[in-house]
Amino acid sequence: MNYVAETLENLFHQTAFANLTVGNFIMIGIALVFLYLAIKKGYEPLLLVPIAFGMLLVNIYPAIIASPAENGGTGGLLYYFFQLDEWSILPSLIFLGVGAMTDFGPLIANPISFLMGAAAQLGIFLAYLLAILFGFNDEAAAAVSIIGGADGPTSIFLAGKLGQSSLMGPIAVAAYSYMSLVPIIQPPIMKLFTTKEERAIKMANLRPVSKLEKILFPIVVTIVVCLILPTTAPLVGMLMLGNLFRESGVVRQLQETSSNALMYIVVILLGTSVGASTSAEAFLNVSTLKIVALGLIAFVFGTAGGVLLGKLLCHLTKGKINPLIGSAGVSAVPMAARVSQKVGAEADPTNFLLMHAMGPNVAGVIGTAVAAGVFMAIFGV
User: Fold this and answer.
1) For residue 1, what pLDDT is reported?
2) What is the pLDDT at residue 93?
3) What is the phi/psi pair of residue 294, to 5°?
4) What angle do CA 203, 206, 212 make, to 5 degrees?
């Protein structure tokens, strides 16, 4: 009988139940909520499903992301995935895929979109100041504030570059969560700062953009931005390389691989490893709550900054620019542009703003990368 009892006891201690804490159960619950939002509600499932599943795995089996030093010389599976995040490899490859899928034509046709993309970065710098007031050191404050760009890869990239690996999980989860919740968060802000008449403004069709312009754009942007902020080269360089694959028309296989197979492989690796960095010990603390709150503040003020500049441009152009497209200046491509279209169509069902909003939207991708480069320059990275 003692043998049977000891065997059963040993078997029990080999199960996850023997080591689960209340915090683990809370995180498992959060993971299940994220899976529900992704699968049932369709909130960016491409991002949320792997993140939520990584969160589920690490809170059942923490060793899945344990380092070799913690696990008898052999790291857990997702530890090696997470190393690719820390080394900035996966975020840069994500940008390669995004560039291969992105049409910069609306931005080239309407260069004033750059201003709205820049204005939408207001939330980042405001959140940086607030993060310092909340007790974060300068580097941590910068890493947290970049959430306001609603750009997960850039958030991960900057956190790694500034040595904030311990905060990378909460920062990345907050950034991707806000990206997923763009259709919920942005419309009330957009309606708060605009009138129905402004939301109903119809914009003139964009001019055609030549093939030569589209080929020169990624080359010129790379030269200009990387000469001014060389540390942005891994992000901006990969973004523009992917776009050159797309627009040159001579490397179709590279463009298709970058925007399809490679992109989806990287999303799986990045999403599950980011989710696995949210163990109960790492996630359930006051710092995480501060990060989530600051990320929301940054995102709200970024949206408001883009809309308010849109209102100013609307006034200066005597009603030729719909202020709603300014909200798309955050980096969530193409979700933010779709939200601009949706809110505009609510004011006038015949209004079509999607292509106009894509200009500030893709400008925001560049703008958030530039904001990250500014922080790296400030801290000498």
Assistant:
1) 62
2) 95
3) -65, -40
4) 165
Contact criterion met (CB below 8 Å) for 148 and 127: yes
Q: What percent of the chain has pLDDT over 90?
A: 66
Peptide bond just before 334 cis, omega within 30 deg: yes
- In whole angstroms, give the CA distance from residue 227 to residue 151: 23
Sign of CA dihedral 51, 56, 57, 58: positive
Nearest CA to 174 among 290, 85, 292, 270?
292
Q: Band the pLDDT of 173: cuts 50, 70, 90.
A: confident
* Count of positions (residues) in the chain: 381
Q: Closest Cα partner for 114 from 322, 360, 319?
A: 360
297: left (phi over 0), alpha (psi -120 to 50) or beta: alpha
Dihedral sign, CA of 333, 207, 343, 315? Answer: positive
Cα three-residue angle 267-270-275, rounded to 5 degrees? 115
Cα(340)–Cα(202) distance, integer angstroms: 12
CA dihedral for 261, 266, 272, 275, sign (positive or negative): negative
Count of helix runs (H) and strand runs (E) in the chain: 21, 0
DSSP state of 202: P
**Using CA atoms, how far apart are residues 152 and 175, in angstroms rounded to an integer?**
5
- pLDDT confidence of 11, banded at 50, 70, 90? low
Between CA 101 and CA 365 the distance in angstroms is 13
- How far is it, in rounded angstroms, from Cα 380 to Cα 173? 26
Exposed, middle or buried by CB within 10 Å (0-12, 13-18, 19+), for 261? exposed
Q: Is the pLDDT of residue 17 over 90?
A: no
pLDDT digits (tens, 9 = 90+) for 312-356: 999 999 999 999 999 999 888 888 999 999 999 999 999 999 999
Burial of 96 (0-12, 13-18, 19+ CB in 10 A): buried
pTM, entire model: 0.90
What are the angstrom distances between the C-alpha of 18 and each of 15, 58, 71, 220?
A: 6, 15, 18, 58
- Angle between the 122-133 and 354-378 helix axes, to the nearest 10 degrees? 40
